[in-house]
Every structure is written in C-alpha cells, then in structure tokens.
Amino acid sequence: MSDLFDDGEIVAEGIIQADILQQWVDTLRALVHESKVHFTDGGIRASVVSPSNVCMYPTAELSKQAFESFDAPGEVNIGVNLDALDERLGSANSDDLVRFGVDMEKRMFRIQYRQIEHEMALIDPDAIRQEPDTPDLDLPNYVELEAEYLDDAMSNIDLVSDHVRVTNTDDEFVIEGQGDTDRAALSFDGDDCRRLEVPEDVESLFSLSFLVDVVKPIPSDTVVSIRYGDEFPTWWEYDLFDETMHVEMMLAPRIQSD
Amino acid sequence: MSDLFDDGEIVAEGIIQADILQQWVDTLRALVHESKVHFTDGGIRASVVSPSNVCMYPTAELSKQAFESFDAPGEVNIGVNLDALDERLGSANSDDLVRFGVDMEKRMFRIQYRQIEHEMALIDPDAIRQEPDTPDLDLPNYVELEAEYLDDAMSNIDLVSDHVRVTNTDDEFVIEGQGDTDRAALSFDGDDCRRLEVPEDVESLFSLSFLVDVVKPIPSDTVVSIRYGDEFPTWWEYDLFDETMHVEMMLAPRIQSD
Amino acid sequence: MSDLFDDGEIVAEGIIQADILQQWVDTLRALVHESKVHFTDGGIRASVVSPSNVCMYPTAELSKQAFESFDAPGEVNIGVNLDALDERLGSANSDDLVRFGVDMEKRMFRIQYRQIEHEMALIDPDAIRQEPDTPDLDLPNYVELEAEYLDDAMSNIDLVSDHVRVTNTDDEFVIEGQGDTDRAALSFDGDDCRRLEVPEDVESLFSLSFLVDVVKPIPSDTVVSIRYGDEFPTWWEYDLFDETMHVEMMLAPRIQSD
Hints:
The first copy, chain A, is mostly beta strands. Chain A is 15% helix and 44% strand. The first copy, chain A, starts with 9 loop residues before the first strand and ends in a 7-residue tail after the last strand.
C-alpha cells in the first residue's frame, strides 16, 4: 500500500464495496457524463438532469451505511467525471473494497483497490450543469414492479416505436408502444405487481430512449415504485443494497398530438 | 393476460415452446427475410429459395405434434416478415410458451409470451417471392453426418476458399477447399458417419457461403442426411425436436471450369 | 485419417496438444505476423522483433518435451505465416492433439486434428525480417510477479497515459502512468511479489502499447521474471507448461525528456 492518502488535504474519505460504487456510477451515467457530488455526514448524494431537461434523477444517494467506513466531517461538494471514474473501476471485482478520498488541496479524487491506485482531477462544480428543481407532483396511480418486467417492456417496445404509453385498465398496468403497423404491449395484473393501485384510468406518453437508459442499470430483481397520471411526468423510486442506496427518477411526458 | 386473441377474426392459432419456433425461424432466415407460411390441420410449412435461386429449402415444416396446442380449421396462407418475428421472440426464454394467432380481419400475426404481446402486420403473400419448384433428383451417394462436423468443415474451408468440393474415396466422405496455395480438407470414414453409402466416385462443387448459412442454425448433434452426385445439386434432410420439425435443403452445384 | 503425411518429403513432424501450440503462436503474434521457425532435435524456436525494433522476443521456444511426439532429424528452418496458423487452429479444442509436418518438397506446413487437415504454404525465410541481435545487459533490479498483476497494471495505466514508468522504492516495485492531470500507479511489495530484489533506486520509461500486447497472451497465474535498470531496456522471462515453453522478452526504453 502506498501513501496515496497520506499527503494532500483529504477532506472526505471512505471505503466501499466496488459493486455498490459501480452501481451508483452506472445509474448516474444513464443521464450524464459528469456530476456534482455532495459529501455530508450522512453519505454521498447527486442530483442530475439530462441535457434536454426531460429526464432527471432528483436524487441518487448512498447513505453512510452503504460504506465500510465513511468520514466527511463537513459538507464537501465536488465535481466528478463519471465516465473516468467508471473506467478506473473497470478492473475491480465486485467484492473488492475501494478506498477513496477527496484531496481539496491538489483537487484530486483518489481511489485505490487491490494494488491499483488512481488520482483523478476533480471538475470545477461551477462548470457542471446546475442541479434540477423538482416539481411538486400529485400522481394518482401507483404500481410496484420488478425491474425485469420493465426491461422486457423497453426492449420489446423498442422494436416498434420510439415512444412508450403508460396506462392501465381497472386491474392491469399496461406499458405499450404503437408503430405504423405493429404494436407491442405488456400487461401486468395484480399477480405480476407487488402493488397495483390504479384508481384512475389515465395515460401518459414518454420517450423510450430515456426509459431504456434508466432501466438498464437496475438489477433485474429490484422492485421499482412507479407513479403516473394523465399526461403528467412519471416518478420512479427504488432502493438497493439493503436500502443503503436510494434512487428517484422523474421523466417528463411527451405531449400527445391526436 | 390481455384479450389479444379475443377480438379480430383468428383463423389459426396455437401454442409452441419458444425454442422450437425460434429454430424454425432461424432456419428460414438463413436464406430469406420473409416467407409465405402455410397453416394446415397438419401443422405449418414454408418453402423458400434464395434470391439467386441457388439454394432452397423445399420444405421446412413443424408438424402439429411440435405444438402444445394447434388449431387451423382450413388451409391458411400468410406472408410473414421473419426478421421481425425473430426480433419479437428475442426476449423469450427457450422454454417460454409462445401463443400465436393469425387475424385475417386485421391482417395481423399476434404472439404472446410471459407478459409480452406483439401484433405484427402480415405481408401480402403475392408480394413474396414465389415458392420454388423442386427438381427430381437421383443422387447416388448417401452420407449421414452430425452437424458439428459440417460446421467444422465450413469454418475451416472458409479460411482458404469460397468453394466447397464434396467428394469421396471408397471409404471416406470428403469435404474440401482449395485456395491459391493453401488447402483444407475434412475426411469422414465409416466411424465418423452414421451411414456412409458412396457407391460412385463423384464430386460436386458448391458455393461456401450458402453452406455456412445453412449449417449455422443446425444444432451440433443433429444428424444430417446428405445426398450428392457428380456435378449435381446436393440434397440434405434433417429432423429436430423428436421429428416434429423436418427440413429439406437443396443447393445447386457450381460448374467446374478446368 | 487421410494420407496427409504419407506423401511429400516430410523433414520434421510431431504431435502437440492444441493449447500449447496456440499459446506459442499467440505469443509471437503479439509482435509479428510471420516468423522464421527453427526445428532442431531439441524442439522448435523462434526469435522475432517488432517492425519498429523496439520490442523483441529473443527466444520463444517449445522444447521437445512439450510435444507428444517430435521428430526433426536435422536442423530445419522454415518461414511460417503465424496469422494463418492461428486461424487454422481456430476450431481446435484445447486438448485436441495437433499433428503437424514440414514438407520441404511441396514447401507446405501441414496440420491435422480431429477430421480437419490443412496445408499451408511456407514462406521463404529470406523474405522474413531478420532475427534480432540481443544486446548484453547488466540490469540491477529483479522482480518476480504474476502476470495477473501486469495485466492490471497495463489496463489501468492505459486509462491515463501511453507510457509506463517502471521504478521502485526500497521495498516496493512500482508501475505507473502519468497523464496531463490523472495518474495511475500499481505498487507491489514483498508480499505481492514472488521475489523482490531492488538494490538500486532506478526507473525506466516504456511504450505502453508493447507491454499491453506482450502481457495479453500470458496466462494470469504465470510468474514473470522482470529485470530493469536506469533508462535501460527491461528483460522479461517466463515459462509455461511445466517449463516446456520458455519465453524471453526485451523492450527498449523511451528516452525521458524532462
């Protein structure tokens, strides 16, 4: 072990299992290449929005309990190149312990696992796209569904359309796509869903590409909570790693022209 | 389950294990992108020829016994986009049960497995290339060989030539390719072949590319019956899934110029 | 089995397990596409240098003991297209026995495994790049390290730089890369290394791309002996298959401009 963490001004540091850090990075990279990251005594958190302002993670956070050890005395805000961090985790096995530290003096993010050490230049947070405002939403319908079903939905709808219609009958949640001639639809009843509370017959249309990107990193057995309304944004939430990682996702609807 | 099969005019329908339907689609796609498909009370059948007229499947059929259930009251002839059908089976696990139906009113082919439903527009059969006439052939030599050997032959001959010579000695069946300097040859004796009946010393030359495409979808332990003669087409047959799928393949020879 | 080896003037022949021959071919192909190959009663040997003269294998040899059988009555020197040989071994399973023979009359290299036979034209040895002279080197520092660590080093340094600095402290062997802002370093102490004899604090800089190519074919658990000095070439050696394959590698340093 070198003295990677012995010099400089380390203002926040910790140790985390590689697969947990990788999952958090993969999630954010579905929408952005770089992100502001906030270290507090409760853990780390990011809030990002796609360049088009259509899709956002109001929060993607790792609580202190996600870490083997975690030390951030005050609030620390840095800018991280997520693509570079992803590359530097590329040799890690899922159960490798990754040690990291924020050096504010040299403006470096440092990580180390096995015999591998990396120093990555921080990005000036002011040069990163501003964090999104989250609208207040009152969405009537609520579904809990395993991510595997969402993956099925997006990959099949992708064959016929660029848009996804989220809707329901009285007793089924329906995700569908309509092409010029062909149609794909996935229907989930009370047995398929963990919860299915659809008091209103509503529908909203969304861009498929964001949903493909957002669903891809979610492990297949993760239960995703989905709220939606009538031509309203959809709001998703899920937890991972014994609820030590929490993700919220919001996607604006496409206006239906018919 | 939605009412995918409850409306429209369903004139033929059935349930089949995904890997069986996929195998049949893969087979046809070796030569064509779309096909006429005939539903009769005995099962489904297609007969296709390559655009160049060089290679054909005189028949590729799934008997009624290949299906979990099958209902085609009269003869129904439809045109199917095989590439699209292949894509729509892409999420199926090999043991998923695929329900399908032909809706002649809406001119749709419908499939459903797990929570996934697809409606695919049928193609006008008259817009599809005509089915081939099969010549009468009297081919003297007969060999039965596992597809794994044929795959070895095509992938190795591919390294030296675009053509395949099929020939034999008194006690060996030989598949070979001759390049400008290099040569590849595969020799199969009575131990390698299930049957080896080669009364005549004959040879025929074929385009490698068709054989590569035709061999690719055949499971490696499938026994393929091969008939060939002297500068004659070669005729292959094989059965799959307890003989509920039957395939015949004919490839015209290349004229040897020496 | 055909009479592939019964005609022609076979001046050297043998039988070898496919994975051993493949390993030897993969090794040489890291630097060159074709090679002179020397058959002696002790085995086969090649000595090659990269087109740029920067990296060489002073020797990559398979001793007679690497073969199931080996017969080379006198010294035979041939030119072999390694890329073509690699392709022709492509269908071999690792434990297939590969029979080979050098036919000096037809100027062919012949190989056979399972039912597969190949004749490959030999290359005129005079048309192949001359074999390298190996300089005498007196390198002070010596390390033994598993190839897995070298693979980690090259893939991580590749993220930040085109150059690799090989250096050490009193008790650690260090491989590192320095980019414009980012840095990657791998440090190996006495526990990581099989042997660590670094009497001098020295360093040399090397082109990463050669090291990536050279490390890639080495099985991950292979112990590699590394000698290096101060702005001197580095000299690597390793053995495989119970020391029946022996490889020496030398890489010239890049001159450091600071």
